[in-house]
Amino acid sequence: MTTEHPIFKMAFSRVYPMYVQKAEGKGRTRDEVDKIICWLTGYSTAELEKQVEREVDFQTFFAQSPAINPNVSLIKGVVCGVRVEEVEDPLMRNIRYLDKLVDELAKGKAMEKILR
After folding, report:
1. Rounded Cα distance, 11 and 113, in Å
2. Residue at 1 is within a domain
3. Fewest CB atoms within 10 Å of the CB: 15, 88, 96, 106?
4. 3-state secondary structure (DSSP) of residue 79
């Protein structure tokens, strides 16, 4: 039996400002963070705002996403010591993909390279 990771039940709206803060701290913008999240999940900007307002957890956030981008398999690398492409749990892998994309943004990578 597998146990659910605590982040699955964490409100996306609690982590979202941290993504924005990380990006803004490196001279990037909230709009760029939103663009990355929308690219990954298929949400429109308005739908993303609604999900944040509704304070849905990560599990719900990804379960309700219109369409995970088909190019996610091109996202490679390490986040928090974990190789994202090797994460077995689909939800955790999506969360790690999002972390990796925000990391790339904060490190100054060009948007066209982030949005594969």
Report:
1. 29
2. no
3. 88
4. strand
Angstrom distances, CA of residue 72 to CA of 4, 47, 61, 88: 23, 20, 17, 14
- Return the beta strands (E) in 26-92 as ranges: 78-79, 82-83
Q: Residue 39's domain is classified under what CATH number?
A: 1.10.8.290
Average pLDDT over residues 72-89: 92
- Judge whether 102 and 77 are in contact, CB under 8 Å: no
In a domain, 32, yes or no: yes
More confident call, 23 vs 4: 23
Domain for residue 40, yes or no? Answer: yes
Classify burial at 32, counting beta carbons within 10 Å of its beta carbon; exposed 0-12, middle 13-18, buried 19 or more.
Answer: middle
pTM above threshold 0.85: yes
Q: Which domain holds residue 34?
A: 7-108
> Over the stretch 10-58, which tens digit does the pLDDT of each residue have?
999 999 999 999 999 999 999 999 999 999 999 999 999 999 999 999 9
